Amino acid sequence: MKSDDIVVCRCEEITLDEIRLWIDRGYGRFDELKRILRVGMGPCQGRGCRDIILRELSRSTGEPVESISPGTIRPPVKPVKLGLLIHGEGETSC
User: Fold this and answer.
1) All residues at 6 or more sequence positions from 5 whose CB lies less than 8 Å from its CB, including other chains
2) Is beta strand 14-15 parallel, antiparallel or unpaired with respect to 7-9?
3) Do the Cβ atoms of 40 and 71 come closer than 8 Å?
4) Whether CATH 1.10.3470 fits 7-87
5) N or C, which terminus of the chain has less Cβ within 10 Å?
6) Which residues share a beta bridge with 14?
7) Are 14 and 8 contacting, i.e. CB atoms less than 8 angstroms apart?
8) For the segment 13-24, what is each residue's pLDDT rounded down to a tens digit?
9) Bridge partner list, 51
10) Does pLDDT of 94 surpass 50?
């Protein structure tokens, strides 16, 4: 199987070749790749691709995987109905 056939981020359909291309262009951190390719931003929130991308960054930089930042991990946001915001229904105190 060729590396251009290997899908690393299934949520955004990003291949291994695309990851390597952007790393070669100077994007050497997970958060940079996340901004340019949207890896780690799909429904799985990076659970499917983060480790593969970190290993690829490690391979290209020579740094151990443990020393590479896994990027900023944010919980998914749940949609809220506009009516709840307008009418203040379901308000809770902090």
Assistant:
1) 15
2) antiparallel
3) yes
4) no
5) C
6) 9
7) yes
8) 999 999 999 999
9) none
10) no
Asked whether the beta carbons of 40 and 9 are under 8 A apart, the reply is yes
Distance CA 51, CA 70 (A): 8
Determine the residue type at 29: R
pLDDT of residue 4: 66
Percent of the chain scoring above 90 in pLDDT: 47
DSSP per residue over 1-13, as a string? Answer: --TTT-EEETTTT
Alpha-carbon separation of residue 18 from 23, 37, 55 (angstroms): 9, 9, 15
Question: d(Cα 42, Cα 60) in Å, to the nearest integer?
Answer: 25
Phi first, then psi: what are they for 73, rounded to 5°?
Answer: -105, 120
Spatial separation of the C-alpha atoms in residues 27 and 36, rounded to whole Å = 9
Extents of the domains making up the chain: 7-87
